[in-house]
Amino acid sequence: MNIHIKGCRLIDPKSGTDAREDLFLAAGVVAAWGRAPKRFRADRTIDAKGLVVCPGLVDMSVRLREPGYEYRATLESEMQAAVAGGVTSLACPPDTDPPLDEPALVEMLKSRAKSLNLARVYPLGALSAKLKGKRLAEMAELAEAGCVAFSQADVPIVDTEVLWRAMQYASTYGFPVWLRPQDSFLAQGGVAHDGDVATRLGLPAIPSVAETASLATMLQLARSAGARLHVCRLSTAEAVAMVRRAKQEGQEVTCDVAVHHVHLCEVDIGYFDSHCHLVPPLRSQRDRDALRAGLADGTIDAICSDHAPLDEDVKHMPFGESEPGATAVELLLSLTLKWATEAGVPLVSALGAVTSTPASIMRVDAGTIGVGATADLCVFDPEAHVRITPASLCSQGKNTPFVGYEVPGQIRYTLVAGQVVYENAA
Amino acid sequence: MSRNPQLNEKGALQHLLTIEGLPREILIHILDTAASFINVAERDVKKVPLMRGKSVFNLFFEPSTRTRTTFEIAAKRLSADVINLNIATSSQTKGETLLDTIDNLSAMHADMFVVRHASSGAPYLIAQHVGSHAHVVNAGDGRHAHPTQGLLDSYTIRHYKRDFTRLAVAIVGDVLHSRVARSLIHALTTLGAPDVRVVGPKTLLPAGVEQLGVRVFHNMDAGIRDCDVIAMLRVQNERMRGALLPSEQEFFKSFGLTPERLALARPDAIVMHPGPINRGVEIDSAVADGSQAVILSQVTFGIAVRMAVLSILAGK
Question: For B98, which residue in chain A has the nearest alpha carbon?
Fold first, then answer.
C-alpha cells in the first residue's frame, strides 16, 4: 500500500530534521520526503496538516505479562496499548513467569507478538537462570532466539562475583547488560523514599544509598569486565552525577529514567496513594530536578514507560502491601511532550529520548525516518490535550498516578512497516 | 492532593486517622470533652446513654489487648454495642481482602470502625471505602499514627502542666518505628509546645525527622535537660540485637531513663510511657514506679479521651 502523508511537520531526531515535508511510503518503507517519487500513486492520503510525524516510539521497558501473568494483561491488550501510544518497538523485561531464560520462551513470545502485526517486540533475556542470581543464563542461545540484551528486571544479583562473571560472559559476545541499581539489603522491606514523606507517613523507607552503592559497584564491575552497561531507571540526583562522571571518564555506559520520575516525587503520595507506589520509589523534588537536568544535558539517554499493568485488586491495598508499578506505555509520548514544554527543550531533541537514542542503545533498526528506512511512524497532534482517565486507556492495567491529568499530544496514527495499525480520527 | 480525608465538607471530624493537619480547635474540643467524661468512671453506674443503639466494631488486624480493651470500655460506657474482631486470626488468613472484610461488616450496619493494622495508611483506605454514615478511628497503623494515644498523652500533659505554650518535651527512644511518637509530635506542635525534642541513636530516628518541627538529640543527658515532660517510647525486643542496636544493656546505658538522669530534667517533670514498659531497657524501675511517673494516669485518661473521640464522631 502506498501512503502519502500530506502537509505534516516531520521530525527526525537522528538527523536533526524538523521541517514541513510531505512523506511518501511504499512497500513498507519511506520512499521519499518532500517530492513524490516517480510514478507514485497513493492508495491512501493522510491529511496531516498541523500534525507531527516522528519515528515510532521505542520504549525500553514494557511488561507484556506473558507468559505467566495473563490475568493482569495479555499480549493482545498491551500490544494494542503500545500502538495506541505511538510505540512501534519495545523491549520487554524478563520478569515473566517463568522468566525469559530459555530460548523456546523467547521464540514463542516473539512469534506470538509477530502474529499480531502490531509493535515490534525485543525481549530482554534473563542474565541469570530464573533471575536467581546464581547461575548464568544461556546468553548466546537466548541472543540467537532474539534477545537484544540481558537483564535482571527488578531482581538484583546479590552475589557480586556472579554479577562480575555475568558481565564478563556477556561481554565475551558483546551483549549489553541492562541493570537497575538497587542494593537488596539497603532496600529490604522499603516502599518509599527515605525522606520527609516516608517519615511523616511512617512508610518503611528505601534510602538513596541503596541506589548509589549498587550503582558504584555496577560501574566498577562493568569497567573491569569490559561490559556494555545500560543502567535502568535512575531515581536519585547522586546516581545522575555518578553516571555523568563515568561518561566523562570515557566509560561505555548509558542510562534511562522512567517517565513517572520525570514528573512526580514523594509528595505525590499524598494520603497513601498506592498508584504512586513505584520501583524505584518516587524520590525528593531535588532528585526529580536532577533527573530532568540529566535528561536535558544528555547524561540520561532515554525515557521509558516502565509499563507495568496491574489489576486494581493489588492496588486497592494499604500502600506498603500494594504491588508497585504503573501502566504507562500509552502515556510515554504525552508525558515526554509535557516535560519538553515545561523544560523548554526543543521537540526534536525531546523526541530523541524516546526514539533514536533508545533504538541505538538496543541496537535495533528503528527510531529514525530516512529514505529507505522501515516506515514505523507516529503521527500526533501536538496542540491537542487529552485528559487521562481509566476509560481512555487500552491497556488492561488502569493503574496510573496520572489519572485526571490534562496532557499534551494526541496520537492520531501509528504505522508499522507502512501499515496503519492504530488510528484515532479525533 | 485531595481534601483532608478526615474532615467533612463543613470542616468537622468525619474520621480520626491522624493528628497531623487537624486544627487546634478540634484537638482542644476533644480534650475538653474528655474532661467532661472523667467523672463517669467514678459513678456508681459507669454509663452515659450517648451512643445507645450505635454499633462500634473493633477491627484489630494486629494483635492488641490494651488498646482494644480501652476502646471497648469507652464504647460500652457510652452505651454502644461493641463487636470485637481479631482479624489477624480469622478471615484475612483465609485470603479475604481487606476491603472485602470491610464490605461485609458495612453490610452489618456498623456505625464506627476502630481499626488497628500493621500497614501504615490502612485506615485511610478503609475510610475511603466505607459509606458516609460510617466513621473510622485509627487505633494504630504501622509506624504512621496512633491519634488517640497522642490525644491521651496531650490530655495527660495538660492535666499536669496546664499550659502547652511554655513546655519542653523530650520524646526518647525508637522514634523510627513509633506511631506513638509521630502522633505526639503532631499534637504538641499543633497545641503550641515551643520545644519538642526527639532523643535516640541515629539508627532509631527517621530521615529528616526535624521537618516535623522537633529538635534532634543523640545524647540523652542533653536531650532531657530542663524538660517538663519526658515521653519514653517502647523499644521492641526484636530491634535489640540486630543492625539497629547491639544490646539491651547498651541501649539502657545510653538512653535508659534512670533516677540520676531524671534529675537533669525540671524537678517537677513528669514521665510518660505508652506501655507496656520494658523495665531495665528503656526505663529504670525506680523511675517507672516513682512519684514523677504518670503512666497509670495515662491509662485512665485514655478511656475518657476515647469516649470523647467516639461521641464526637457520633455527633453527640
Answer: A317
Residues B80 and B201 in one domain: no
pLDDT tens, position by position, A319-335: 999 999 999 999 999 99
C-alpha span between A244 and A84 (Å, rounded):
34
Boundaries of domain holding B60: 24-146+299-314
Q: Which residue of A has its CA nearest to B6?
A: A271
Residue type, B314: A
Is pLDDT at B91 greater than 60 in this prediction?
Answer: no
Q: Which residues of A336-368 are buried (b: 16+ CB within 10 A; e: fewer)?
A: bbbbbeeeebebbbbbbbbbbbbbbbbeeebbb
Mark yes or no for CB contact A203/B120 under 8 Å: yes
Flag if A320 and B142 touch (Cβ within 8 Å): yes
| CATH, residue B77 | 3.40.50.1370
Residue A358 zone, left/alpha/beta (φ > 0; ψ -120 to 50; rest): alpha
With beta carbons under 8 A apart, name residues in chain B contacting A321: 119
pLDDT one-digit tens code per residue, A239-258: 999 999 999 999 999 999 99
The three-point CA angle A135-A138-A143 to 5° equals 140
Cβ–Cβ under 8 Å, residues B70 and B114: no
> Which domains are delineated in chain A?
55-362 (3.20.20.140)
pLDDT of res. B44: 87
Residues of A in contact with B205 (CB under 8 A): none
Q: Which residues of A are catalytic?
A: 306
Identify whether residues B128 and B247 lie together within a single domain: no
Residues B198 and B214 in one domain: yes
Distance from CA of A270 to the nearest CA of B (A): 6
**Quick check: is B70 in a domain?**
yes
Residue A124 identity: L
pLDDT at B1: 43
Same domain as B256, residue B292: yes
**Element at B272 (helix H, strand E):** strand B270-272
Instruction: State mean pLDDT over B55-65.
Output: 92
CB B215 within 8 A of CB B195: yes
Tell how strand A419-423 and strand A406-416 pair up: antiparallel
Contact B182 A202 (CB under 8 A): yes
- Does residue B13 lie within any of the structural domains? no
Work out the average pLDDT over B284-298. 97
How large is the C-alpha radius of gyration of chain A?
Answer: 21
Distance CA A197, CA A266 (A): 6
Cβ contact B211–A316 (<8 Å):
no
Q: How far apart are CA A114 and CA A67, in angstroms?
A: 15
Rounded CA separation A106/A119 (Å): 16
CA-nearest residue of chain B to A206?
A: B207
**A207 contacts on B by Cβ (under 8 Å):** 207
- Interface pTM (ipTM) of the complex? 0.93
Let me know how long chain B is: 316
Report chain B residues whose CB lies below 8 A from the CB of A316. 97, 99, 125
Give every CB contact of residue A340 below 8 A, 6+ residues apart in sequence: A346, A347, A350
C-alpha closest to that of B308 among B67, B42, B4, B77: B77
- Kindly determine whether residue A195 and residue B142, on different chains, have CB atoms separated by under 8 Å: no
B153 and B117 share one domain:
no
* A267: closest CA of chain B, how far (Å): 9
Nearest-angstrom CA–CA distance, B305 and B75 = 11
Q: Is residue B9 part of a domain?
A: no
Nearest residue in B to A284, CA atom: B208
Residue A270 neighbours by CB under 8 Å, 6+ apart: A276, B1, B2
Contact criterion met (CB < 8 Å) for A205 and B122: no
Name the nearest CA neighbour of B46 among B309, B315, B307.
Answer: B307
